[in-house]
Amino acid sequence: MKATFQIPDELYREVKAETARDGRTVREVVISLFEQWLRQKKQPAPHAHSIDWESFQAPLSHLMPDQVTDHSTEAMRKSTTSQWNEQP
Fold first, then answer.
1. Contacts for 23-30 with beta carbons within 8 Å, 24 or more apart?
2. At a CB cut-off of 8 Å and minimum separation 6, what does 15 contact?
3. Is the pLDDT of residue 69 over 90?
4. Angle at alpha carbon of residue 49, lines to 65 and 54, rounded to 5°
5. Are residues 38 and 48 in contact, defined by beta-carbon separation less than 8 angstroms?
6. Is 56 exposed, middle or buried (0-12, 13-18, 19+ CB in 10 A)?
7. Which site from 35, 40, 45, 88 is most exposed, i.e. has the minimal number of CB atoms within 10 Å?
8. Is 79 in contact with 70 (CB distance < 8 Å)?
9. What percent of the chain has pLDDT over 70?
10. Distances in Å between the alpha carbon of 20 and those of 8, 15, 25, 29, 82?
């Protein structure tokens, strides 16, 4: 099948020069690029690692005192702002 593409002149000049240096035609390079693109599209996406949330340990959890059991946003807010309300 014949197809027509419009590409920037400078890009075409560069491609034409490189293909000539490689002893290939622009047509060969374009076909090769289309085939490569299709092969990549057909490859399965990398599998995302699943996280076992039941046994998840936060990376810095070892720095938390053992008596801290409430990790809610409200508890963290109270913990960090309580010192602002203390009188010396």
1. none
2. 26, 29
3. no
4. 40
5. no
6. exposed
7. 88
8. no
9. 95
10. 18, 8, 7, 11, 73
Distance CA 56, CA 83 (A): 30
Instruction: Kindly report the pTM of this predicted structure.
Output: 0.48
What SS3 state is found at 68?
coil
Q: What type of residue sits at position 61?
A: S
Domain borders along the chain are: 9-42
- Residue 63 tokens read as 């720095």
Distance of CA 47 to the CA centre of its chain: 13
Q: Tokens 């046994």 belong to which residue?
A: 55
For residue 88, the one-letter residue type is P
